[in-house]
Amino acid sequence: MPNNEDKITKARAEFEQLEAQMTPHGSARGSLFGKPCLKIGTKSYACQFRDGVAFKLAPDPRAAALALSGAELFDPSGKGRPMKEWVQVPVKHAGKWAELAQQALDYAGR
């Protein structure tokens, strides 16, 4: 079983691949809470954080993302104040990140 540092390293690498996939859709790299994020214009829609990526999602995709094992509302402060539209999805679901990123991009661009 990989340790937490291995998961974080894998998440960063997977996020870089996701960034490359999303760039043709008009995305740009930015920073959110000091962490790398993807933006469309000035709106952030995905953020690499710890061992996963947080996505800003509309209600239906958000519910589906929260159903993934290990997924939870994004709480970057760690103080029990999650961001209601954002879901943190762990690296074990990296195969779903491109779909989630597209849904988040669509939501951000609305």
What secondary-structure arrangement, pairings included, does this model have?
Blueprint lengths: L3 H19 L5 E5 L2 E6 L2 E7 L2 E5 L2 H8 L5 E3 L8 E8 L6 H12 L2
Antiparallel strand pairs: 1-2, 2-3, 3-4, 4-6, 5-6
Report on this structure:
The structure is a single chain. 35% of the residues lie in helices and 31% in strands. The mean pLDDT is 95. The chain has 110 residues and is of the alpha+beta class. The protein has one domain (4-108): Alpha-Beta Complex (Aspartate Aminotransferase, domain 1), CATH 3.90.1150. A six-stranded antiparallel β-sheet has the order 1-2-3-4-6-5.
Brief synopsis:
The protein is α+β, with helices and mostly antiparallel strands and 110 residues long. It has 3 helices and 6 strands, in the order αββββαββα. It has a single domain (4-108), classed as Alpha-Beta Complex (Aspartate Aminotransferase, domain 1).
Provide the descriptors you would attach to this structure in a database record:
110 residues; alpha+beta; Aspartate Aminotransferase, domain 1; 3 helices
Query: What is the topology, as strand order, of the major beta sheet?
Result: 1-2-3-4-6-5
CATH T-level fold name: Aspartate Aminotransferase, domain 1
Structural class: alpha+beta
Report the sheet with the most strands, covering strand number, pairing sense and barrel closure.
Answer: 6 strands, antiparallel
Q: How many DSSP E strands?
A: 6
- Provide the CATH top-level class: Alpha Beta
Low-confidence stretches: none
